[in-house]
């Protein structure tokens, strides 16, 4: 890749306005559409470059985002530790693989709408999607090692950044987002994508083929969570981390079920 091409213009897919939903199924469907549009954009340009085309731009797509705005201290069913927020404010979460978590998302969005009597907002986030995670959705496609292509992948696409894929939210130490909104979910889209990639790497099995059981583990302890949620395939996406104490004893600042 020559020196001048390092300053390529940024090309993104068309992004429509944010939309509000009072129907949780419709909100989940829109999240799926946005995710497919983002991954489709990255995969289209990635496969063209693999076929020999030279990059004409830096290609960037964004994760979809779910947003909730609460303006009052609503009366809620406090017997649940999820499906509501405790204080007025703006809350947001980036979303990945809504096809896997569609039933879970529909359930959680429905609780948020019902408990607070307000719509949720769905649109593109400001968090770029690493091309590796878009490629991971394709069983017959892989990202070549650095040096195989005639250009550096990092110069043309966003790539995973380990310093942003942490457990700060669930550990209760994450700051507010740059726009002042609070975290609606326990993990970011990139963090979940990273765990999905590790799951497939260690087991040679795509995430969608796993049963509805989650194994929490670290080097000190191991336990399982066999709660069967309406997710159809997944109980909850909290296996994205390896906590040092059982989930039942940990306090999470988010209010979508972790």
Q: Please count the beta strands (DSSP E, at least 2 residues each).
A: 9
Structural domain count: 1
Strand order within the widest sheet? 2-6-4-5-7
Largest sheet: 5 strands, mixed
**CATH topology, anyone?**
amp nucleosidase, domain 1
Quaternary assembly: single chain
- Helix fraction, binned, reads 25-40%
Number of helical segments with 4 or more residues: 5
Average pLDDT level: 80
What is the name of the CATH superfamily? AMP nucleoside phosphorylase, N-terminal domain
Keywords:
26% helix; two-stranded parallel ribbon; 258 residues; amp nucleosidase, domain 1; globular
Lay out the secondary structure:
Blueprint: E1 10-11, E2 19-21, H1 24-50, E3 58-59, E4 62-70, E5 89-94, H2 102-116, E6 120-128, H3 131-135, H4 153-156, E7 182-183, H5 189-203, E8 214-217, E9 222-225
Helix pairs in contact: 1-2
Describe this structure in words.
Strand 8 and strand 9 form a beta hairpin. The protein starts with 9 loop residues before the first strand and ends in a 33-residue tail after the last strand. The longest helix has 27 residues, at 24-50. The chain has one domain (3-249): amp nucleosidase, domain 1, CATH 3.30.1730. Helix content is 26%, strand content 16%. The radius of gyration is 19 Å and the shape is globular. It is α/β, with parallel strands linked by helices. The chain contains 5 helices and 9 strands, in the order ββαβββαβααβαββ. It has helices at residues 24-50, 102-116, 131-135, 153-156, 189-203; strands at residues 10-11, 19-21, 58-59, 62-70, 89-94, 120-128, 182-183, 214-217, 222-225.
């Amino acid at each position: 890749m020559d020196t001048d091409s390092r300053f390529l213009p940024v090309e993104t897919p068309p992004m429509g306005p944010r939309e509000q939903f009072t129907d949780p199924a419709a909100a989940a469907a829109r999240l799926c559409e946005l995710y497919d549009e983002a991954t489709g954009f990255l995969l289209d340009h990635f496969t063209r470059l693999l076929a020999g085309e030279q990059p004409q731009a830096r290609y960037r797509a964004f994760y979809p985002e779910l947003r909730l705005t609460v303006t009052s201290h609503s009366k809620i069913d406090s017997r649940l530790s999820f499906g509501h927020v405790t204080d007025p404010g703006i809350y947001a979460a980036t979303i990945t693989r809504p096809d896997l978590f569609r039933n879970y998302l529909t359930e959680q969005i429905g609780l948020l709408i019902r408990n607070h009597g307000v719509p949720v907002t769905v649109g593109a986030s400001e968090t770029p999607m690493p091309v590796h995670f878009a490629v991971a959705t394709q069983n017959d496609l892989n990202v070549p090692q650095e040096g195989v292509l005639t250009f550096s992948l990092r110069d043309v696409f966003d790539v995973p950044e380990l310093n942003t894929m942490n457990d700060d939210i669930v550990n209760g130490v994450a700051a507010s987002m740059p726009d002042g909104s609070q975290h609606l979910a326990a993990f970011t889209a990139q963090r979940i994508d990273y765990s999905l990639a590790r799951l497939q790497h260690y087991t040679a099995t795509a995430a969608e083929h796993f049963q509805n059981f989650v194994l929490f583990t670290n080097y000190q302890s191991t336990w399982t969570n066999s709660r069967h949620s309406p997710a159809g395939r997944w109980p909850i996406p909290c296996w994205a981390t390896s906590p040092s104490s059982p989930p039942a004893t940990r306090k999470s600042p988010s209010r979508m079920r972790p």
